[in-house]
Amino acid sequence: MFPKYDVIVVGAGHAGCEAAVAAANLGSKVLLATMNMNTIAQMSCNPAMGGVAKGQIVREIDALGGYSGIVTDETMIQFRMLNKSKGPAMWSPRAQSDRMEFAGKWRMMLEGHDNIDFWQEMVTGLIVKDGRCQGVKTGIGLEIESKSVILTNGTFLNGLIHIGDKNFGGGRAGERAATGLTEQLESLGFESGRMKTGTPPRVDGRSLNWDAMEVQPGDEDVTGFSFTDTEKTHEQVPCHITYTNTKVHDALKEGFHRSPMFNGRIQGLGPRYCPSIEDKINRFADRERHQMFIEPEGRNTCEIYVNGFSSSLPEDVQYKALRKVVGFENMKMFRPGYAIEYDFFPPTQLDISLETRLVKNLFFAGQINGTTGYEEAGSQGMMAGFNAHLKINDQEPFILKRSEAYIGVLIDDLVNKGTQEPYRMFTSRAEYRILLRQDNADLRLTPLAHKLGVKGSEERMVGVRQKEEAIKRIKGILDNTSVAPGEINAYLESVGSAALNQKVKMISLLRRPNVDIQGLASSLPGLKSELADIPPSYVESAEVGIKYEGYIQKESEMADKMNRLEAVNIKPDFDFSILQSLSAEAREKLKTQRPRTIGQASRISGVSPSDISVLLVHMGR
């Protein structure tokens, strides 16, 4: 009935979709197994992609040939570049998507790929022989063979939904939980745990008083996520902002004794950085209000996502409290918020390639590894897809360094440090933020995808080369053209910068605070003419590179020093127990986690700098 596949991907959420695409784009024959074909790429929580650090990840996925950026661009209803008032390392794209169009576009792109097949059924087990994963077992008793398997089960593994006093099995509202896999993995020696996440109520936009809320429009300049020439919206839908108040808080507190969070029924660890409304009120008791973002679910629906009001309180408590929010006085609810507990597997059980240590050719990606967020899931799925293909073809794994991508930071953190709560990416987690900007993801990563052989990367490299040439050209113009005081002083004074008393190079003016390249061009017709045929995104990248050249150079030097440790490999069968100078904790951690390099070993919790020195001395360094 089935051929033997190269890769079987279990789960068709964001991790599963990107995993299938990544393996297929390298030439593997892929089976994407899902319990419901109608929920492929479902946005289970908020209808948005990107945000602080997450936007950088989506651009990195795109630069490596993934589809998340393309799908987001072609289905967005609003776009904003966050943190523009801060330095460029912090600029983060974010888009509101049309939930139904997003899932539909993803499915269309997957179905259009010749290397991807589908099977709609629950996967209940794995075929494991001689310590190697060789396929999956399904709920109706089928066995489907493959050379490798990627598990991307999201919140479905023994999922349990909580709404007040009620709880019931489910992986998402209206969908059943997945059973069987956790128990088998535990029998194979894997350690598992429980985590918790939640989602807010969905309400009827026709019942809201929009005039009573603040309008949050999108940016006029819609740059989007993909480095390809995608079709982006020109008719944006506004979001709105409102706030809770003391009356709302009092109404919520009346139900705290019925909250599964507070009465002990929820055992899983929840996300610190996206707490429920009851958790916010409890932890920040001195705050009289909390912000709520009112986000449309799509262009042609009245369903509204109440961002900032995630809750597992009883539905009557949620309803009563929401009606005390300004603008929500006559609110009608579509469904209450809920919390969901699910199984995860601590990611310290993985190699840096996302292959499990206990079972070869088995990979984990997404929330099964303890992360939260579509973007974090999608990036892991992509890397697992690449590495599953490479593993079965006896090639070295594709590993991104911390200095190369936020994706590298994410996976390195997970594998070497683990996580005690749902892991979410922030810019503060990356020590090389100025190198890992959203504007240069294509320059950093598309050449790596091209070298790897990702389908479509040759066409993308044309754009990369054009961008590199444009940046070089802009720098040359600025470095070789002098400006007289009379040409530019009026502009300099308008931005609070000191006037000139002699000619200077344009490039030195651009390095000044408050001076930007568009401002210079507005006063210098020659420069404006030179830049006219260069895409604005290329100009922006050139400007950032010039303004922050000193910082970029310092971070590059720091990264080079750290990468020297990454170049010192540790043999897979190295016996750490022979090094008695190592601390007992370091020996135990190193034997368990089997780092591939000295650099990786240095980031394992419990391994001290003195332990690293011992390793370096032993290896003659």
Description:
This protein is an alpha+beta fold and 621 residues long. Among the domains are: 96 residues, Arc Repressor Mutant, subunit A; 52 residues, Orthogonal Bundle (DNA polymerase, domain 1). It has 21 helices and 22 strands. The strands form five sheets. Strands 1, 2, 6, 7, 8, 9 and 20 form a seven-stranded mixed sheet that branches. A hairpin with a 6-residue loop joins strand 16 and strand 17. Helix 2 packs parallel to helix 11, helix 3 crosses helix 4 and helix 12 crosses helix 17. The longest helix is centred in the C-terminal third of the chain and has 24 residues. The mean pLDDT is 94.
Descriptive key words:
single chain, 621 residues, alpha+beta, Arc Repressor Mutant, subunit A, DNA polymerase, domain 1, 7-stranded mixed sheet, 6-stranded antiparallel sheet, 21 helices, 22 strands
The helical percent reads: 25-40%
Total strand segments: 22
- CATH architecture annotation name of the domain at 457-552: Orthogonal Bundle
CATH topology of the domain at 457-552: Arc Repressor Mutant, subunit A
Helix vs. strand class = alpha+beta
The average pLDDT is: 94
Strand content: 15-25%
Number of DSSP helical runs: 21
Which sheet architecture does the biggest sheet show? 7 strands, mixed
What value does the Rg take, in angstroms?
26 Å
Q: Based on CA inertia axes, which overall geometry fits?
A: globular
Question: Which runs of at least 5 residues are low in confidence (pLDDT < 50)?
Answer: none
Distance between the termini: 56 Å
CATH structural class of the domain at 457-552: Mainly Alpha
CATH homologous superfamily (4th level) name of the domain at 457-552: tRNA uridine 5-carboxymethylaminomethyl modification enzyme MnmG/GidA
